[in-house]
């Protein structure tokens, strides 16, 4: 089977790294072109364009490519090399507590594809044997959203994604094109943060609201990296519900939901088995959890985003226990 463009690029970059590591004194562009089959047979323009792209790709990957200017100042005679001492990782030394934390973190993944990735990372660090030495823990970091593996690949490989997204209380899904920056988890839900190309702004997307398949577009590395000011605090602010809260109306069975009744600004006693409580300025996430915890004795009437959040949370619980 012939290699695809991604495989060819990976092999070319790997061969370039190996070639440069083998020449401590550096080599010129002409020497690289003459000795690497990947660059042979190309026109001058095609070689220059491809070599510049490959240099940038290596630097984006964190590989310390060094250009040494020629004594006479001629660019064609400049040499390129990779300092082996900067390229190789130093010896990693972990104490018992640090090794235990890594093992627990690896166990946290419920996603099968990520379980194998985490286990492989432990083997490379030489702590794989400790997977069986620690007692079981209840920590878990699941990702039940069907599009999570695709979103993970998009962030890892910096590839644009296209998907249909259903906003809270929206009548239908909208098409989105996003250059991914990172994934974040908050209260059991995963979010994709990236640059919305159609709205020309950074947005967050809750993966459970993606309808249908998420499609990868573009070559690996074609999407730009995350901006420097997209800090952990900035991401958390994007995916945390508005702290100003919502005004909600909830039906409760008589003699149930006393915690919600105490928070209510108004309680309407019903003639049947249900009362209605009105709560103002409450955090949406916290209220969703309270309503879900009451199960069949609580019904969220409004606002629409509360109803949608309750339905979504209960659906996820049902799926986990199927």
UniProtKB/TrEMBL annotation:
<dbReference type="InterPro" id="IPR051534">
    <property type="entry name" value="CBASS_pafABC_assoc_protein"/>
</dbReference>
<dbReference type="Pfam" id="PF13280">
    <property type="entry name" value="WYL"/>
</dbReference>
<dbReference type="Pfam" id="PF25583">
    <property type="entry name" value="WCX"/>
</dbReference>
<dbReference type="InterPro" id="IPR028349">
    <property type="entry name" value="PafC-like"/>
</dbReference>
<dbReference type="InterPro" id="IPR057727">
    <property type="entry name" value="WCX_dom"/>
</dbReference>
<feature type="domain" description="WCX">
    <location>
        <begin position="246"/>
        <end position="317"/>
    </location>
</feature>
<protein>
    <submittedName>
        <fullName>Unannotated protein</fullName>
    </submittedName>
</protein>
<feature type="domain" description="WYL">
    <location>
        <begin position="150"/>
        <end position="212"/>
    </location>
</feature>
<dbReference type="InterPro" id="IPR026881">
    <property type="entry name" value="WYL_dom"/>
</dbReference>
């Amino acid at each position: 089977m012939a290699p695809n463009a991604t495989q060819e690029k990976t092999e070319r970059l790997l061969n370039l790294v190996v070639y440069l590591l083998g020449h401590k004194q550096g080599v010129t562009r002409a020497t690289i072109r003459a000795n690497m089959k990947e660059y042979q047979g190309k026109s001058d323009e095609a070689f220059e364009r491809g070599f510049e792209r490959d240099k940038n790709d290596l630097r984006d990957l964190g590989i310390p490519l060094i250009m040494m200017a020629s004594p006479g100042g001629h660019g064609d005679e400049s040499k390129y090399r990779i300092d082996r001492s900067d390229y190789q990782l130093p010896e990693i030394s972990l104490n018992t507590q640090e090794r235990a934390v890594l093992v627990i973190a690896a166990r946290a993944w419920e996603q099968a594809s990520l379980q194998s990735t985490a286990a492989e990372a432990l083997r490379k660090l030489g702590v794989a044997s400790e997977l069986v030495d620690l007692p079981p823990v209840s920590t878990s970091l699941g990702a039940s959203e069907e599009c999570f593996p695709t979103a993970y690949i998009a962030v890892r490989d910096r590839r644009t994604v296209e998907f249909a997204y259903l906003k809270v209380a929206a009548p239908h899904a909208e098409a989105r094109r996003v250059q991914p920056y990172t994934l974040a988890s908050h209260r059991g839900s995963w979010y994709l943060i990236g640059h919305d190309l159609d709205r020309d702004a950074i947005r967050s997307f809750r993966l459970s609201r993606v309808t249908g398949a998420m499609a990868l577009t573009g070559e690996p590395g074609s999407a730009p990296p995350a901006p420097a000011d997209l800090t952990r605090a900035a991401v958390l602010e994007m995916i945390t519900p508005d702290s100003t809260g919502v005004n909600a109306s909830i039906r409760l069975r008589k003699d149930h939901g006393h915690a919600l009744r105490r928070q209510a600004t108004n309680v309407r006693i019903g003639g049947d088995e249900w009362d209605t409580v009105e709560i103002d300025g409450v955090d949406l996430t916290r209220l969703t959890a309270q309503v879900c915890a009451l199960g069949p004795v609580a019904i969220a009437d409004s606002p629409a985003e509360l109803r949608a959040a309750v339905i979504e949370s209960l659906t996820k619980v049902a799926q986990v226990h199927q």
